[in-house]
Amino acid sequence: FNDLPTVAILKHTNPCGLGHGATLAEAWEKAFATDRQAPFGGIIVVNRRLDLATAQAIAEIFSEVIIAPAFEPDAQALLSKKPHLRLMVNSETAAPAPGIEIRSCVGESYLLQGGDADLVSTASWKVVTKRPPTEAEHAALLFGWRVVKHVKSNAIVYAAHDRTLGIGAGQMSRVDSSRIAIWKASEAKLALKGSIVASDAFFP
User: Fold this and answer.
1) How many other C-beta atoms can be found within 10 angstroms of the C-beta atom of residue 179?
2) 105-128 CB burial, b ≥16 within 10 A, e <16
């Protein structure tokens, strides 16, 4: 998500809200609106230099970590007053992640696999519906697909072109993940009409 100012809120390695905006503060409002309860004690990641306006909005809730490419001095000064909050700089010069992931399995066996570092692109997409998606729907599909890639286990994401509306994850049944996503959107008073739905596997 490098094209626009973007904020992602993570909890237990799952995104619980993500938004684009003309500014980071606007992106924060969209991300936070997805779920105003789950971000408590979470990790906030931004893709632009964190400014004071965004820092002031973020400071209204308790968070554990904020990751940004850089922090404006006044934003850093404000956030440094919050106890137990860690500010981290996501350096572009950091060493890339290794190409191979190693996971332990049953007994003394291991799984070696390549990391999924592919960026989502519409170039390889094939429209299989009678009506092709509109430009706005196409943008929402790309946004939702980028997000659902990072949601763990039976992932369902309802999204617009610039924000998540409901996220369901970690359920044994994908139907239950969808129900959770719909319930979350309802709790947040976010309308799902006209939204897209992304799933990390087949739709039941």
Assistant:
1) 15
2) eeeeeeeeeeeeeeeeeeeeeeee
Please state, in angstroms and rounded to a whole number, the distance separating the CA atoms of residues 99 and 107: 24
pTM to 2 decimal places: 0.85
Three-state SS for the chain is CCCCCEEEEEECCEEEEEEECCCHHHHHHHHHHHCCCCCCCEEEEECCCECHHHHHHHCCCCEEEEEECCECHHHHHHHCCCCCCEEEECCCCCCCCCCEEEEECCCCCEEEEECCCCCCCCCCCCCCCCCCCCHHHHHHHHHHHHHHCCCCCCCEEEECCCEEEEEECCCCCHHHHHHHHHHHHHHCCCCCCCCEEEECCCCC
Cβ partners under 8 Å of residue 30, min gap 6: 7, 17, 19, 20, 21, 162, 163
Give yes or no for residue 118 having a pLDDT over 90: no
Q: For residue 10, what are its two tokens?
A: 């993570």
CA 72, CA 55: separation in Å to the nearest integer?
9
Of residues 170 and 24, more confidence is placed in 24
Token look-up 């996971």 returns 103
What are the pLDDT digits (tens) for 130-171?
A: 999 998 999 999 999 999 989 988 999 999 999 999 999 989
Beta pairing, strands 63-68 & 86-89 = parallel
Separation between Cα atoms, residue 99 and residue 69, nearest integer Å: 23
